[in-house]
Amino acid sequence: MASGNDSRKNFEFNGELIEAGSRVETVIDVGIDPLGRKLEIPCFIFHGSFEGPTLSITSAIHGDELNGVSILHFLIHGYDHIPNNEDDFIDVTKLKGTLILIPIANPESVLLRQRRTTDGRDLNRQFPGRSNGNHSQRLAHALFSSIVPKSDYLIDIHTAPGTRINLNHVRTNFDNEICKKLARSFGTNIVLHSLGSEGTIRREATDSGCPSILLETGSSNSFQIKNVEDGLAGVLNVLKSLGMIEGEIREPNFRVLVRKSRWIRAPSGGLLHCLIGIGELVEENQLIAQITDPFGHKTDDIFAPCNGIIVSIATIPLTRTGDPLVHLVPLTKTFEHVKSILDIEDDLECKEELVNDDEGVQLDDIVFETSEKTEPK
Hints:
Layout: E1 11-13, E2 16-18, E3 22-32, E4 38-47, E5 50-59, H1 67-77, E6 96-102, H2 107-112, H3 135-147, E7 153-158, E8 164-172, H4 177-186, E9 190-193, H5 201-207, E10 212-218, H6 225-241, E11 254-260, E12 262-265, E13 270-274, E14 281-282, E15 287-292, E16 298-303, E17 308-314, E18 318-319, E19 324-330, H7 335-341, E20 351-356
Parallel strand pairs: 5-6, 5-7, 7-10, 8-9, 9-11, 11-20
Antiparallel strand pairs: 1-2, 3-4, 4-6, 8-10, 8-17, 12-19, 13-15, 13-18, 14-17, 15-16, 17-19
Helix pairs in contact: 1-6, 4-6
């Protein structure tokens, strides 16, 4: 085990010097709000006692997406929310490198429980931002310029919007080998290829030389404990794989690398009755949903077009023609393996599959026309 290093340099963050072996609560200054109060982004920094990489983790860039907030709370203080005791996950005196944690990246929108910023924009389309731009651009600039140039890696945590729920999965650019390795180390069963839309923090950070991944976990406006626990385990996996903390990496019992996947859309409007759950395995031609009229008369049956696993489903029954209902990842080589282990808790050898479905599309090619125009992150 390494011994202490009194010569490690202080970490400079927005003019503040943080000593090695320290954990510090600080803020990123954004400006002044309409009531004359300081607008600040809360930030927590672990500056480890030993040399190592710098990892930034952001959550709540969309103000209604809260599971990442809980993940970072537990990462900072442990499950008891009390610092500096035996259930803490990070011992800064043993940490190799630096952690920059942004639990609430979009404070005003979190207070309003809304996805968009107070000037009606999607913050995750504004990066790297502009110091002299509109309000959202300035918020993006303050966050991006404070953390990305100092970071070797970045994880951005999101959830599905209020109309859907997502299985925990990671998205990244497979054509960047460092991003792909980082995504695989997280340990989710599903890893989706996506560059990300222009203006997203992970795309702009990656393009600027900071390899980045995105975690999708659950749905909005709540803390979903199973999603949070799995997300925290994934973050700890990344820290271990980067050599920042010690411990055994938790491997998934299967992994699917997805170039292309399928969205099953509503053939007609009506009321949606989903017959499958998130993370469920389905077989080709299996009945997975029905659409009815207001009186409950069936108007459409919806069948799985192929064998696969469900990574996202609509949660709002009110459905219009063309609405996305189910996100399905096709499985071929791993289908029987996955089928045999989904109900088994024992650790098994990981089997991996690269999916590039000829009838599917990349996430970057999808645009969902909803009331808030939710695009791929």
